[in-house]
């Protein structure tokens, strides 16, 4: 097959770009030709990234949505229109990822199969993070006039005079509806599938395919006896690290905790940690490279996923499972898809810090339970989330004339 990937960014940046890279590399090894259309470069190993594709194209329509000037402009490379790129390649399928405005592409897609991976809530939530501003509880409503009541017509804009800008909710709804036309839509979890269905997407076109990351499957280190807790991820409001800190305050046994990651809430979280009296037990580790990160997983007895927003899937869960570590997490978004209750860890009610503290402490003080959960987590990772199985299922979704076979896990 000739597969044309379409994504706003070219180069490593976040989970979306990593998924595009891993998928393109895997599909090429299976004999497919993979091309990339993009609008801006990330300047993070961009040359290496481009080598994963047969050819890459700087796209005029995506360039208009670029957040900043980039390397392509400085070299004065002339962008091509999407229609010109289609005519040049004649792909069998166009595989969309993060694209801000589908209106620029609609008229060009009549005679080619179209597939889109929905990576987050941007398409169906004007506020993007899918939880209410006041209660901070997960929203389970479709996009509608109710969004106005939650202030979704405002968006942060630090560079503006007022610090906010207006969002046209009707425009957002119209953009969402443009995606009804896709032949196949892929999501990472049952929560995301339900979100699309309640917003009017046809049920026979929406399939669940967890975005598995290519990684070596190696026998994990034994779960240690030391009471070490680990969090890995961005330090931002939606990730719920403040909720985790409040839970840690309630743990009665001795422990240490490492928070790996950076984000715009780090100063606020460090202050909260001191106020809660956790300063000596909680360490903010910042960003670390992959080899260092493996060391943190090896040292951890339990991994905590305290997300406030409903994770579209929750890739950190797969990483914990790959390392054979039990997880405690809030039962929001896609987390219940991979966290099996009392088997690979413990699911606790949304924002219930008492329940989270109890679950973490239970694993910390019970070596046998921690080992059991860790073993089950690793076995589930191997049996359900293999990268080759992911590629086989994706192929069935991309191939022209074949029905998608992606299951709801």
Describe the structure.
The protein is of the alpha/beta class and 409 residues long. Helices cover 35% and strands 17% of the residues. The chain has helices at 15-29, 46-50, 60-63, 71-74, 82-89, 146-149, 169-178, 190-198, 241-249, 266-275, 290-299, 315-322, 335-338, 353-365, 367-384, 387-398; strands at 2-6, 9-10, 33-38, 40-41, 55-58, 93-96, 113-117, 154-156, 164-166, 184-187, 206-208, 228-232, 256-260, 282-286, 302-305, 327-330, 345-348. A seven-stranded parallel sheet has the order 5-3-1-6-7-10-11, with helices on both faces. Strands 14-13-12-15-16-17 form a six-stranded parallel sheet, sandwiched between helices. It is globular and about 65 Å long. The relative contact order is 0.11. Residues 68-75 have low confidence and may be disordered.
Please render the helix and strand layout as text:
Elements (H helix, E strand, L loop, with lengths): L1 E5 L2 E2 L4 H15 L3 E6 L1 E2 L4 H5 L4 E4 L1 H4 L7 H4 L7 H8 L3 E4 L16 E5 L28 H4 L4 E3 L7 E3 L2 H10 L5 E4 L2 H9 L7 E3 L19 E5 L8 H9 L6 E5 L5 H10 L6 E5 L3 H10 L2 E4 L9 H8 L4 E4 L4 H4 L6 E4 L4 H13 L1 H18 L2 H12 L11
Parallel strand pairs: 1-3, 1-6, 2-4, 3-5, 6-7, 7-10, 10-11, 12-13, 12-15, 13-14, 15-16, 16-17
Antiparallel strand pairs: 8-9
Helix pairs in contact: 9-14, 12-15
């Amino acid at each position: 097959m000739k597969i044309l990937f379409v994504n706003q960014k070219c180069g490593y940046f976040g989970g979306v770009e990593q998924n595009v890279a891993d998928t393109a590399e895997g599909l090429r090894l299976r004999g497919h030709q993979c091309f990339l259309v993009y609008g801006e470069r990330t300047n993070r190993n961009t040359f290496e990234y481009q080598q994963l594709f047969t050819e890459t194209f700087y796209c005029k329509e995506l360039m208009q949505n670029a957040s900043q000037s980039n390397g392509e402009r400085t070299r004065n490379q002339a962008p091509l229109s999407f229609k010109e790129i289609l005519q040049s390649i004649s792909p069998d399928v166009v595989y969309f990822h993060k694209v801000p405005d589908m209106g620029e592409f609609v008229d060009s897609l009549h005679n080619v199969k179209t597939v889109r991976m929905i990576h987050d809530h941007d398409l169906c939530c004007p506020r993007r993070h899918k939880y209410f501003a006041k209660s901070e509880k997960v929203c389970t409503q479709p996009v509608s006039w109710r969004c106005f009541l939650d202030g979704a017509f405002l968006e942060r804009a630090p560079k503006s005079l007022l610090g906010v800008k207006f969002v046209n909710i009707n425009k957002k709804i119209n953009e969402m509806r443009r995606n009804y036309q896709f032949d196949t839509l892929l999501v990472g979890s049952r929560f995301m599938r339900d979100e699309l269905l309640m917003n009017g997407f046809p049920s026979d076109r929406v399939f669940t395919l967890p975005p598995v990351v290519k990684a070596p499957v190696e026998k994990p280190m034994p779960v240690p006896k030391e009471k070490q807790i680990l969090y890995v991820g961005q330090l931002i409001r939606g990730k719920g690290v403040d909720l985790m800190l409040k839970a840690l305050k309630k743990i009665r046994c001795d422990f240490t905790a490492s928070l790996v990651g950076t984000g715009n809430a780090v100063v606020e979280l460090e202050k909260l940690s001191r106020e809660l009296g956790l300063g000596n037990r909680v360490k903010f580790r910042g960003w670390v490279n992959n080899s260092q990160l493996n060391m943190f997983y090896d040292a951890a007895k339990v991994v905590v996923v305290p997300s406030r927003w409903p994770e579209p899937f929750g890739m950190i869960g797969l990483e914990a499972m790959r390392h054979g570590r039990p997880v405690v997490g809030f039962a929001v978004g896609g987390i219940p898809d991979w966290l099996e209750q009392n088997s690979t860890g413990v699911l606790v009610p949304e924002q219930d810090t008492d329940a989270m503290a109890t679950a973490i402490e239970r694993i910390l003080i019970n070596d046998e339970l921690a080992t059991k959960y860790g073993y089950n987590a690793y076995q589930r990772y191997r049996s359900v989330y293999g990268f080759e199985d992911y590629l086989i299922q994706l192929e069935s979704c991309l191939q022209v004339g074949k029905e998608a076979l992606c299951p709801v896990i």
